[in-house]
């Protein structure tokens, strides 16, 4: 019987480091294969680069100062002294850790202040913070969606959403990226079969830097009696004239959306996640979402810095305007150099499409040597053949930084072509 699991060696025969059997894992084998293929053509890893100091629009890597396009400090608030000062005051007052879940002993006035500010931002009744953005989605979706329900997500949603969907007892489906007709067809066919339907999209897509069609999504939500959830991780700060998010871009009252989710780790210069919505939704999550009930509260100092960053976002709209000017400049410069930014709208996330994963990796290595830090996104992070360099812009970048980075990208690509690297890939 060939389908039988092969017998494993008995304990006494097993040697080598524990745990045994990792090589039997599909993911482990894929990782090894990618590493071996990379090594065969002289590629090092472009990830886990050590930033030796404060990573801002410039950073220090291996002793050298580089232009940094790898950090998502969209509005430069991680470089601003005020959120840091707020964190330090809270640190002095409340200590480093909350030393307990919110339910037990972890709640401090700074958590409540942050949540009130988030609820005000989204014109919602209430909001709730979590200790991690990733854990927010992983915890929220299975808590909300039960067996008789259906979750529909855009094909490009973040791993935290797809993991949350996989852990939910609800049925799940994804629709092609931003394809509202395809979404409508699914709703037409499947809505009658389920009790609740949740549609999940992102406010600014983290790999492609494009936006969802929020007005159409709201219309579909209404027509098919569904719930709409928007993950604003990358949209808060970069999107909307003053950076308030995707609702501002479309001129929509945020109270129209059922569930806002976001992270504190990007524009808000902190760590953690949040959900904003109705009083009942938040009351339910506070009591039932495992990532809230069974996990420690956000450290008070990080709640304080996020609240201060959110205050600055509202008070200093020039930061978002500056970021958008830089984004438009990036698109124009890339076009002049013959570089392809796909569907990006020219906000904080700007991909430069490369295609082959090995080429994108090699290019990132060359760019680092030329003084530019930008990470490639390669398979399996994006589908095979759609690898890219992903530039995160900050309002602290200067137009000259963008020019230098894109000119270096063009030069390094041309060099690799001249050296026959692309032919090497074709032969591999
Ligand atoms: N949602 C999206 C769309 C993200 O891109 C990310 C992280 N990049 C998360 C959620 C998770 O957020 P965090 O990194 O703050 O845990």
Automatic annotation (TrEMBL):
Alphabetical UniProt keywords: Transferase
Cofactor: pyridoxal 5'-phosphate
Coiled-coil residue spans: none
Keyword Transferase: yes
Composition-biased stretches (Basic and acidic residues): 1-13
Ranges where the Aminotransferase class I/classII large domain occurs: 65-408
Keyword Thylakoid: no
Pfam families: Aminotran_1_2
PANTHER family: CLASS II AMINOTRANSFERASE/8-AMINO-7-OXONONANOATE SYNTHASE (PTHR13693), LD36009P (PTHR13693:SF3)
Name of the protein described by the UniProt record: 8-amino-7-oxononanoate synthase
Taxonomic lineage from the root: Bacteria, Pseudomonadati, Pseudomonadota, Alphaproteobacteria, Rhodobacterales
């Amino acid at each position: 019987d060939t389908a039988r699991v092969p017998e494993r060696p008995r304990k006494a025969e097993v040697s080598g480091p524990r745990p045994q059997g990792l090589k039997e894992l599909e993911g482990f084998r894929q990782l090894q294969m990618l590493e071996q293929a990379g090594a065969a053509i002289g590629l090092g890893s472009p990830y886990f680069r050590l930033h030796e100091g404060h990573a801002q629009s410039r950073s220090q890597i291996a002793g050298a100062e580089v232009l940094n396009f790898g950090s998502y400090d969209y509005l430069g608030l991680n470089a601003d002294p005020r959120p840091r000062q707020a964190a330090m005051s809270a640190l002095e007052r409340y200590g480093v850790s909350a030393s307990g879940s919110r339910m037990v002993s972890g709640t401090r006035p700074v958590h409540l202040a942050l949540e009130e500010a988030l609820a005000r931002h989204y014109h919602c009744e209430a909001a709730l913070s979590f200790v991690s953005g990733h854990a927010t989605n992983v915890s929220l979706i299975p808590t909300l969606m039960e067996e008789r329900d259906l979750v529909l997500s855009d094909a490009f949603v973040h791993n935290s959403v797809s993991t949350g969907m996989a852990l939910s007892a609800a049925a799940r489906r994804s629709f092609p990226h931003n394809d509202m007709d395809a979404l409508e067809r699914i709703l037409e066919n499947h809505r009658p079969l389920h009790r609740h339907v949740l549609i999940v999209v992102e406010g600014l897509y983290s790999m492609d830097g494009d936006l969802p069609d929020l007005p159409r999504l709201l219309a579909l939500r209404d027509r098919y009696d569904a719930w709409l959830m928007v993950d604003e991780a990358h949209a808060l700060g970069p999107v909307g004239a003053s950076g308030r998010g995707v609702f501002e871009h479309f001129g929509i009252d945020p109270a129209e959306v059922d569930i806002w989710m976001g992270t504190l780790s990007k524009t808000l210069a902190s760590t953690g996640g949040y959900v904003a919505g109705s009083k009942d939704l938040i009351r339910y999550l506070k009591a039932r979402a495992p990532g809230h009930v069974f996990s420690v509260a956000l450290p008070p100092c990080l709640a304080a810095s996020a609240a201060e960053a959110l205050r600055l976002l509202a008070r200093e709209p020039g930061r978002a305007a500056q970021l958008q000017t830089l984004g438009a400049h990036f698109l124009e410069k890339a076009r002049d150099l013959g570089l392809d930014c796909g569907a990006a709208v020219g906000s904080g996330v700007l991909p430069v499409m490369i295609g082959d994963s090995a080429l994108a990796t090699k290019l990132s290595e060359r760019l680092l040597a030329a003084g530019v830090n930008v990470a490639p996104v390669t398979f399996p992070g994006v589908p095979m053949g759609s690898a890219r360099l992903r530039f995160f812009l900050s309002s602290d970048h200067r137009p000259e930084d963008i020019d230098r980075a894109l000119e270096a990208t063009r030069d390094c690509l041309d060099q690799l072509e001249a050296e026959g690297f692309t032919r090497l890939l074709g032969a591999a």
